Structure formats: C-alpha cells, structure tokens
Amino acid sequence: MSPAFEKFKAYLDKLNHYSRVINLLSWDMYTTTPKLGFDGMAATDTYFSTEYFALYTSDEFYELVKTLNEPEEYEQLTPGYQFTVRKYKKNLEKDRKIPKDFYERFTAARNESQRAWTEAKNAADFSIFAPHLEKMIEYTKQQLAYTDPGKDVYDTLLGLYEEGMDSTTIDKVFEELKEGLLPLTRKILSAPQPDSSIFKGYYDPDAQKKVEKLLLSYMGFSFDAGVTAESEHPFTDGFSRYDVRVTNHFYEDNPFSSMFSAIHEGGHAIFEQNVDPALTGTAADDCCYMGVHESQSRFYENILGRNRNFWIPIYNKVQELLPELKRFSLDEFIRECNHIQASFIRTEADEVTYCMHILIRYEIEQAIFRDHVPASELPALWNQKYQEYLGITPANDAEGILQDMHWSDGSFGYFPTYLLGSIYDGMFLEALEKDLGSVDDILAAGEIRKITRWLNENIHWYGSLRLPKEVIEKVCQKELSAKPLLNYFEDKYSKIYQL
Ligand SMILES: [Zn+2]
User: Fold this and answer.
1) Å from CA of 291 to ligand 1 middle
2) Which residues of the chain, if any, have pLDDT below 50?
C-alpha cells in the first residue's frame, strides 16, 4: 500500500462513516421519526452533510485523488479503487468550478422551489410553481456553464444519471419504441377491458405485510442482509451489500400496489445485495447508473411479476396470507395485473402506457432545453401530448404537469432512465432466454432463483464498474434497441387482449 493510498483510504473510511450516518438519518426521517421530531433530525442531517461536504471538497483530499490517478499509483489499485479515484477526480474537478455563492443561491432556490411545488400541487395551480420552475431551468443551465462549458446542456443532464448516454442514442431507441408502441397501445385501449370493480373491498394491511415478506423471499431477497419498513412512498436504501433496506406503503383498498412495490423495490435490493464483496467500501459498490438500476427493479416487477407463471407456485400461499384474495381465481388476479388503461398518473400506470408517460416527459425536457419553451407554456404542451399519445386530457395541473417532484428540485434528464430501464429489460429477457430457456417454464417450475442467479452473475456482481453501454454489450452482445421490448409487449398483449 503506497503512503498516498494509505492516506486516501483513511479519508475514504471517514467519508464512508459520515455518509452512513447521513443515510441512517434520512432512513429514519422517512420511516420512523414522528412529525414533531422531524426538524431536529433535519438539523442533524444538515450538520453531518456539511461536515461531509467540507471533507470531500478539501484541498488535501483533492490532491490525494489526483496523485492516485497518476499511472504509477493508479495501476496498483484494485478495480474498485480505480473506479473510485477516477469518479472522484471527475466530480471534484467539476464541483470545484462552481462558485460558492452560486451554489448557495441554487440550494436556497431549490428549497423554495420544492415548497412552491408542494403548494401548487395541493392547490392544483401551476401558476404558483411557474416562476420557480423557470428559475430551476435557469440555474441548471448556469451550473452546467460552469462545469461543462460548451457542451450541449440536455446531453450533459442525461449523462448525469446514465453515464455515456446521449440524446442521439436515446432519440433513436425512443423513436423506435414509439413507432411500434403507439399503434399497439391504441389497439389495446380499444379492445374489451376486464372489470376492475370486482376487486373493490378491504385488504388487511397487516396481511399485506406478510405477503410482502413472502414475495421478497421468493425472489431471493436476503433478510440476513436486509429489512423492510413503511414509508409514504416506497424506496430502497442500501448501506452496503450487507444492509439493504426497502420500504412499502399499504393501502386498505388496494392489494396490488404494495405487492408490486415489494417486487419492484426487491429488485433494486437484490441488485445491491449481490455486488462483488471486493467492491465493498468503494464507490463502485452500488450501481450509480439509474437506468441500469431501474432495469433490475422493472425486470422483477414487469417481466417476472406480471407473468402468470410467477404466481403459479405461490398464489395459494398468497391467498392464505391475504384471505380477501380467495374470492379471485389466479386468472382473474393476473388479468388485473395486466390491465392496460390510459391514465393520468405515471406512478400508477401499467407497463405499456408507462412508456408513454416517459416519452411525453422526455419530449418536454427537450422542448425546455433545446427549443427554450418558457415554463408558462408547458402545461398546454403537457396536455396536448397526453391527448395525442393517450387520448386523455387531465382535468387539472395536479393530475397533469404538477404530479412529479423531479423538476421542482432540478432533476432534469432523470425521467428517461425509467424507460431506458424497460428497454434494457427487453434485451436482458432475450439474452436470459438464450442462456436458460423459456422464462415461462422456469417460473412455472418454481425456479425463479435461477433467474435471480443469472442476473446476479451477469449484472449485479459488477456494481458500477461497467458503464450502461458496456453492460448491454457484455450481456446482450448487441446494440441497444427497443425491438426486444416491443416484441415482448406484442407477444404478451396480443394474447391477453386477443388482438
Ligand atoms: Zn425504482
């Protein structure tokens, strides 16, 4: 171990301790902290975050990171530490170009913007949020002018969440998807639909919690390295591969929501629990590419969880744990899991129309950053696109442009990663079936763990070491394409809707 690496390692350990405390505080705030205790926790969070930031941006740490990027030092490092020093150098070089007073103004504006968004959403009134959104757009452009001068703003934003992806690549696959999916969606939506109202009723939340545990174990989630809790919105929080936590929300009148959230978050968690232990403590020990991460949660949620055969080995057990489901046959149950409908809210959408919700947001983000459409004109654009793609117009902005929080804190360029995740899934499904045979058969035989193992070995093990494009290349040996996802949709829904 070189002296520089020894010093760096001491810094990194300290940073990891701080970030664990920060994570733990945030986990507690979203799961356990009572309303009146929130401000106290938030103050402690700010304290530790500030300490962390000072340590991370210190000159001494930056010098160490630069030294370790020198060839003679770099070559001695393990792949996990090579990734870490490379990533920190790149990020620190950018962060250090942002003037401190600008950073503070942006942070303050972001807090105000989030508050205004909440108020606007509650009042279903976009005009409250419009000036703040305009500010978020302006500040985002300014920040990128410091960090990435001369580069295309929207491409840079996309790269923040899915490194190596740009709008040329994304345009191509999204266009390909849109061309096939629009006519398919129209056909499905005009076909006879199942009757969802038979599922009206009460579903005991405590029983739903037992179902959640059953589903997680079934998929391969390790309870020795993971726990569950409740929160307003489901999320996954990984401390290391040995401690990955998932949350869920249980609705008395809806048994599907918590089951599919469990499967979705379980997919994120299984990813983190199966990263190569040699990467623990490095920056590569979880996946920092949002599209790749999302591809795993969606693979479980949609490709596996919405497959009839996923439920064959466990539907009886699910009914025992949640007796209200005894009224429904497996066929009725699975039919509702694959009910395609035009709806306003992205997070509640089925796997097919979900793609439209993302295409719309992607096109609007391009309108903002490429065509400079002002914030005030966005609700009209939003409504026009919902009419065009899904044939519906929101009654108000709360169920329209104000529904997601992403733009309120300046997370432009994040939405496309959700759809990239699904497009990757189409390709992973093809590759997996080439290796293991039909997913339908594996699931029907109760061997879902075989699929989990394949995902562990081919994707999860590498954490952040492989860029999204490399993951696709290595696993699928093909160029990125929306065709496999389209084929999956066409096969599946032509049968279900008898098209
Ligand atoms: Zn997710």
Assistant:
1) 9
2) none
pLDDT in tens, 316-335: 999 999 999 999 999 999 99
User: What was the pLDDT predicted at 46?
Assistant: 87
- Sequence ranges of the binding site: 264, 268, 294
Sheet holding 243-248, edge to edge: 226-230, 243-248, 236-240
pLDDT in tens, 387-444: 999 999 999 999 999 999 999 999 999 999 999 999 999 999 999 999 999 999 999 9
In a shared domain, residues 335 and 474: yes
Whole-number Å distance between alpha carbons of 487 and 150? 40
Structural domain containing residue 392: 167-496
Domain of residue 407, CATH code: 1.10.1370.30
- Distance between Cα 98 and ligand 1 center (Å): 30
- Could you tell me which of 480, 424, 463, 414 has the C-alpha nearest to residue 87? 463
Of 361, 109, 134, 349, whose CA–CA distance to 126 is shortest?
A: 134
Mark whether 265 is an active-site residue. Answer: yes
Give residue 146's Cα distance to chain centre. Answer: 27
Q: Are 73 and 2 in contact (CB under 8 A)?
A: yes
Distance from the alpha carbon of residue 286 to the mean position of ligand 1, in angstroms: 14
Q: Is residue 133 part of a domain?
A: no
Cβ atoms of 414 and 158 closer than 8 Å: no
Return the pLDDT at 370: 95
Triad 240, 241, 243: Cα angle to 5°: 65
Judgement on whether residues 390 and 280 belong to the same structural domain of the protein: yes
Question: How many folded domains does the chain comprise?
Answer: 2
Residues 368 and 484 in one domain: yes
Per the annotation, where are the binding residues for Zn(2+)?
A: 264, 268, 294
Q: What's the CA-to-centroid distance between 265 and ligand 1, angstroms?
A: 6
Cα(313) to centroid of ligand 1, in Å? 25
> Residue 216 contacts by C-beta under 8 Å, 6 or more apart in sequence?
223, 226, 228, 246, 262, 266, 269
Candidate list 212, 265, 272, 430, residue with the active-site label: 265
183 and 56 inside one domain: no
With beta carbons less than 8 A apart as the criterion, state whether 318 and 204 touch: no
